[in-house]
Amino acid sequence: MTDTLSIKAQLQTCRSKEETFKTLVTLSKTLPRLTAEEKTEDNKIKGCESAVWLIIEESHGIRHFKADSDAKLMRGVLVAILSLVEGKTLTDIQQMDLKAELAELNLSSYLTSSRTNGVLAILGKIASN
C-alpha cells in the first residue's frame, strides 16, 4: 500500500470533484482484495451504504488492517483511512483525531450522510479494542 504522505498529497492536490474521484478510483486498485472466506458477517461493517469488510490483526502491539468493499469509491476511501492507521498501536490510533485527519484529505464531497455513517463505523471499529 502507498504511504500516508503520498496518499495525503495526492488527495490534497485534487482541484475538482472529478479529479478526487479519479484519484480515489486509482487508489482503490492498490488495496488487496479479501478472499471470500474473509468476507464474513463478523468482518462486515454495519451501517455502510456499500458492503465493507474490515479485518484487524495485531502483532506485538502493532495493528495491521485488511479491508475491502464492493464499491470502487469506497475502496479508495478505505485506502486513505488505512494509510492513516496502518502499523500503529491501538493507543496511537486512539490518540489521533481520525475525523480531522480525514477532513484534510478533501473527501467531504464524496461522503454523503449514509457514507459518512459508514466511515464513522469504520473509524469506530479501527479505534476499538
UniProtKB/TrEMBL annotation:
<protein>
    <submittedName>
        <fullName>Cysteine desulfuration protein SufE</fullName>
    </submittedName>
</protein>
<feature type="domain" description="Fe-S metabolism associated">
    <location>
        <begin position="10"/>
        <end position="127"/>
    </location>
</feature>
<dbReference type="InterPro" id="IPR003808">
    <property type="entry name" value="Fe-S_metab-assoc_dom"/>
</dbReference>
<comment type="similarity">
    <text>Belongs to the SufE family.</text>
</comment>
<dbReference type="Pfam" id="PF02657">
    <property type="entry name" value="SufE"/>
</dbReference>
